[in-house]
Design goal:
This protein is α+β, with helices and mostly antiparallel strands and about 500 residues long. The protein has three domains: about 300 residues, no CATH class; about 110 residues, no CATH class; about 55 residues, Arc Repressor Mutant, subunit A (Orthogonal Bundle), CATH 1.10.10. The chain is built from 17 helices and 16 strands. Helix 4 packs antiparallel against helix 5, helix 8 packs across helix 10 and helix 9 crosses helix 10. The radius of gyration is 29 Å and the shape is elongated. Bound molecules: adenosine-5'-diphosphate (ADP) and magnesium ion (MG). The site of adenosine-5'-diphosphate has 16 residues, from strand 1, strand 10 and strand 11.
Length: about 500
């Protein structure tokens, strides 16, 4: 078998990410921004391009874009310019999109990505060329079931929604690096609270530029651009499929044509949508309806001071301040809200390691089962600390407490009240426990011999049996003492 043509090339990747900014209204109109509303309900004259209306810039959107620039180590410019980018599309009523072009709000930043997903792995710095602000277009619905065959419907709810486009340098070299870059970028945008950055809801979208060059060559090859990759998995698969396609062409002595591509997941192949348009085709020029955006340098500094502690710093602090393992710290710092929840519980409870265990094991499990985000959980840090306290003080058992976590996450509530309502108090009554211990030993006499012969691990088995017999309510320390006493020679 011959080796694949791709093995002779290095893949070069640059990503363009469109992230929707978290604002209440659109970039240039007071129409509300929300997800899942009836079509064409969130529109105002500006979104419809009715004659005589003028755009008014949304201050919060500008703040969000500046914060995104600061968080990614960009230079944020005090002056930037909105331009018109012209093209025809039925979901673009003005016939142009307002987008920053020659003078974007931010340029020249970077983010560090973790290579190979290994927590002790090396990091790689990926350059950001620019971040610019622009408005989204509307949505064309070609779906037969909705529009009827041969018809297309237009929904302008998205028209004018504020976006930032974040353009990376062509610094990425593998599909996995592209995936890591996107995950890191998403985490940063969520940390700074400027975007939900949710791919499924379409408020975090990615186009991938891909080219090949023979291993060892400095010069870049011709790139193609993969459009509208709407899941992390697809991004990586599409880049690989496109690289394979290009390698086959090059191996046959062909040339790559600069083109816009689509990826079909069913066949795992890419195909040409259209040959690439150039910037001059769009007839960009500064929008005469909008004066250049001037931002006070002092305001930028105020926003810089307000930046939160980021995931990597938090991860290091969790290790030094709380003595957590790197693994635990990483998991607890990935999501800002989860990290804050953890710290709030520790404030009320104190033993960080125990709290970390419970959060990572039981809270995450409950969230997964309920398909909730920690931000939606009804379980307060105070209530969770109280639950752990009930376990520590022996009022209830770990097992009973674990059984309540899911319910507390879903509905909230008072752990102490739940424990007494459900009769989940730990049983430490010597009479009840002695009887259970005796029954268990009578059922498993062979274990008494084993224990006395030095096989002390049978103690755990016997503990488990007593727990089962008491439906998980036996106070573990009391059981351990009773067993130790009975097993003594
Ligand atoms: P366009 O408007 O054509 O999409 P942009 O400047 O917005 O251009 O984005 C270009 C993207 O393509 C950047 O992410 C850049 O890193 C990437 N890129 C440029 N040259 C190459 C190349 N030869 N191979 C892969 N990616 C490239
Ligand atoms: Mg672009």
């Amino acid at each position: 078998m011959s080796e694949s043509p791709l093995s002779r090339y290095e893949i070069v990747i640059g990503l363009e990410v469109h992230a929707q900014l978290r604002t209440e209204s659109k970039l240039f109109s007071p129409a509300p921004v929300s997800f899942g509303d009836d079509p064409n309900h969130n529109v105002e004259p500006v979104c419809l391009a009715l004659p005589g209306v003028l755009p008014v810039l949304n201050r919060r959107a500008v703040e969000c874009a500046i914060i995104a620039g600061l968080a990614t180590h960009c230079t944020v410019h005090t002056r930037s310019v909105f331009a018109r980018k012209h093209y025809f599309y039925p979901d673009l009523p003005k016939g142009y999109q307002i987008s920053q072009y020659e003078h974007p709000i931010a340029t020249g930043g970077w983010i560090d990505i973790q290579l190979d997903g290994d927590i002790k792995g090396a990091t790689k710095r990926i350059g950001l060329t620019r971040i610019h602000m622009e408005e989204d277009a509307g949505k064309s619905i070609h779906d037969d079931a909705v529009a009827g065959s041969d018809a297309t419907l237009v929904d302008l709810n998205r028209a004018g929604v504020p976006l930032v486009e974040i353009v990376s340098e062509p610094d990425l070299r593998t599909p996995a690096e592209a995936g890591a870059y996107l995950r890191t970028l998403r985490s940063i945008l969520r940390y700074i609270d400027v975007s939900d950055a949710d791919m499924e809801k379409g408020n975090f979208r990615c186009d991938a530029n891909v080219s090949l060059r023979p291993s060892g060559r400095e010069e870049f090859g011709t790139r193609t651009e993969l459009k509208n990759l709407n899941s992390f998995r697809f991004v990586e698969a599409a880049i690989l499929a496109e690289a394979r396609r290009q390698a086959e062409i090059l191996a046959d002595g062909g040339e790559i044509q600069q083109a816009t591509m689509a990826y079909d997941a069913a066949t795992d192949r890419t195909r040409v949508l259209r040959l690439k348009e150039d910037a001059h085709d769009y007839r960009y020029f500064p929008d005469p309806d909008l004066i250049p955006l001037e931002v006070d340098a002092g305001e930028i500094e105020v926003l810089r001071k307000g930046l939160p502690e980021f995931a990597d710093e938090k991860c290091r602090r969790f290790q030094t301040q709380y003595g957590l393992s790197e693994y635990d710290a990483l998991q607890l710092s990935e999501d800002r809200v989860l990290g804050e929840f953890f710290e709030a519980v520790v404030e009320n409870h104190g033993t960080a390691k125990t709290v970390a265990n419970w959060v990572l094991r039981d809270v995450l499990k409950a969230l997964g089962e309920l398909q909730l985000e920690i931000a939606d959980a009804k379980l307060t840090p105070e209530a969770f600390a109280q639950l752990l306290e009930l376990v520590d003080s022996g009022k209830t058992t770990a097992k009973s407490a674990q059984g309540l976590v899911s319910e507390l996450v879903r509905d909230g509530g008072n752990p102490a009240a739940l424990v007494s309502e459900r009769g989940l108090e730990a049983v430490s009554d010597a009479g009840v426990l002695s009887a259970a211990v005796d029954e268990v030993l009578a059922e498993h006499p062979e274990n008494i011999e084993k224990y006395r012969a030095g096989e002390t691990k049978v103690l755990n088995f016997l503990m488990g049996q007593v727990m089962r017999r008491t439906e998980g309510k036996a106070e573990p320390n009391a059981v351990r003492e009773l067993l130790a006493e009975r097993l003594k020679v």
